Structure formats: structure tokens, C-alpha cells
Amino acid sequence: METSGTNRGADRFREWMKFTPARLDVGRTGTRPLTTEMLKFRLDHAAAVDAVYGEVREETLAEFGLFTVETQYRDKEFYLKRPDSGRVLSEEGARDIVRRCMRRPQVQIVVSDGLSAKAIDDNLADVLPALRDSLAANGLTEGTPFFVKGGRVGVMDDIGRLLEPETLVLLIGERPGLATASSMSAYMCYRPGPGRKDSDRMVVSNIHAGGTPPTEAGAHIGALLRKMIEQKVSGVRLEV
Fold first, then answer.
1. β-pairing verdict for 167-173 and 184-190
2. What is the pLDDT of residue 7?
3. Is 222 among the domain residues?
4. Fewer CB within 10 Å: N-end or C-end of the chain?
5. Cβ 193 vs Cβ 156: under 8 Å
6. Cα end-to-end span (Å), the chain
7. How far apart (Å, rounded) are the C-alpha atoms in residues 236 and 234?
8. Residue 109 belongs to domain with CATH number
9. For residue 30, what pLDDT is reported?
């Protein structure tokens, strides 16, 4: 018996559903969502809230010997209302970086919780070793890595002002959604510092088990850093 166009369309739709975590065809009872779907929604929302308000585990940082500095974020509520507070280091944090870090490294690695502490806990153990292997394979050396609490992407420029690295990569937790609360991004810039624009940076995003695989991301980041150093540029002008 020939399959109708409606059935073929439904089969195709179900096939598409396998490739996205988006909520599709969740069903309803009257005007209300199904109880199971509502509970899943509330669970995912709670995970997103926990990711934003959570703290990176000390064990995660200790595993890689990362010391901690803070931005001017004050506390989580202030940080969420004032994104600019996460773009500038505290005075104590700036002093610690100058005192403890190598100046003018080829690659400066920085880790930050950003908007998802869970992203760091879930992905750093795979991303950072893969990145270091990639740096070695590409003939690159790294400076002194550290962790920034309460960071935003713009903190790259404040760090660049202090350390003057040739390149900097910031591994930072992304804003969580209802599909995942553990997504990480890697922002990169050639010679970061005051006055840099978003177009001067590049990013590998959606790094997590259900997105860009963490180990693959680490390898790719190292290759991009090599190209940035070879071409002495980053962002939209980099030829990849």
C-alpha cells in the first residue's frame, strides 16, 4: 500500500527530531502540556539556574594547578545586572597575575566560569589536555594558566594589557539554555588589549558532549592559534 504524503511528512519530521534537542511535537492534553514534558521543562530550567549561580569545583581547578583571580563582579546578582563588571579585573587580581604569570607568552590560556560553572566542571578535563597536545603538535608554547571568577569575554583585553601575550584563549561557560546547561566556548584573540573589538576575536562555541566534542574542540583551537600567529591577525581577517 502506498504511503500518503501526510505519513511521509510525519516520518520525515520524526527523523529530523533525532538531530536536535529542541522541544518538538511534545504533545498536550487540551490546552496544557503533558505532565512529563512540563516536568522535563522544569528540570532543564532548574539546571540552567544552577549553572548560572553555581561555583566551579575546587577539584576541577586543582587538577590543572589553576590559581584564582576575580573581576570586579562583587557578587552574582551584581554580575548579572552589570556585565561590564566582569570585563575588568579586581586590583588584587591584576597584581596576582603580574606577580605569578609569565610575561609575553606565545599562548596565554585563561579559564572562567562566565555564565555556567557546570560547563567548566563538565568539559575542562577533556578540552584542556587536548588543547595542550595541539599546542605541542603545532610547535606552540603556553604561559601560566589561571582561573578568572566572574569573567566576561572582554576580560581578555584587561589580561592582555597586563601580560601582552601573542595570543590568548579564554575557555568560558556559555549562557545556559533549556537544551544544555554545560556548554563552553573558546574565545581567541591575537595580541588582545584595550580597544579590541568583537570582530577581532574568534570563537569555537557549543563545546559539550552533545555539541562540539570537547577533545575535537581542543585540537581545533590549537590549529587556529597557530594560524593566528602565522598571519599575525585574528577575527574576521583571519584566513582559515
1. antiparallel
2. 75
3. yes
4. N
5. no
6. 51
7. 7
8. 3.40.50.11240
9. 83
